């Protein structure tokens, strides 16, 4: 058996630019409002320099041991868009190097942490 319910949409109750949904049921003195939230579309691009890593070229130095190692620079660019999105948005990002390798077999590490994973806010 289905409950007789009433749905009412297309009204922006909280004035955020998105239509909210009001749900009520027959013979019940209550209704529920589902407030729509802004949808953010994030596009990201990750680039490496150099494109190909030569293991014989060792231009970076590990801070703890002073050992010279091969290295590359990562550049990440993220853009966000959407209707009526907040002016300031904080994104959490996580970068993983050699993710498909077993933990003990990873060959790439971030110089500052000597870990294969790093997290940060954008």
Explain what this protein looks like in three dimensions:
By secondary structure, this protein is mostly beta strands. It has no helices and nine strands. A three-stranded antiparallel β-sheet has the order 1-2-3, with no helix packed on it. It has a two-stranded antiparallel sheet with strand order 4-7. The chain is elongated and about 75 Å long. The two termini are 49 Å apart.
SSE pattern, N- to C-terminal: EEEEEEEEE
Low-confidence stretches: none
The largest sheet, given as strand count, sense and whether it forms a barrel, is:
3 strands, antiparallel
Distance between the termini: 49 Å
Overall 3D geometry?
elongated
Strand order of the largest sheet: 1-2-3
Number of strands: 9
Radius of gyration: 25 Å
Number of helices: 0
**Structural class, please?**
mainly beta
Mean pLDDT: 87
Summarize this structure briefly.
This protein is an all-beta fold and about 120 residues long. Helices cover about 0% and strands about 40% of the residues.
């Amino acid at each position: 058996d289905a409950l007789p319910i009433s749905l009412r949409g297309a009204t922006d109750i909280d004035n955020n630019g998105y239509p909210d949904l009001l749900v009520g049921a027959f013979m019940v003195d209550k209704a529920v409002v589902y407030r729509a939230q802004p949808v953010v579309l994030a596009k990201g691009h990750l680039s490496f320099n150099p494109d190909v890593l030569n293991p014989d070229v060792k231009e970076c130095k590990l801070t703890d041991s002073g050992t010279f190692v091969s290295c590359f620079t990562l550049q990440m660019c993220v853009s966000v868009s959407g209707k009526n999105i907040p002016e300031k948005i904080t994104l959490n990002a996580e970068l993983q190097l050699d993710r498909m390798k077993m933990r003990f077999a990873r060959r790439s590490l971030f110089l500052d942490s000597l870990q294969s994973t790093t997290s940060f806010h954008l």
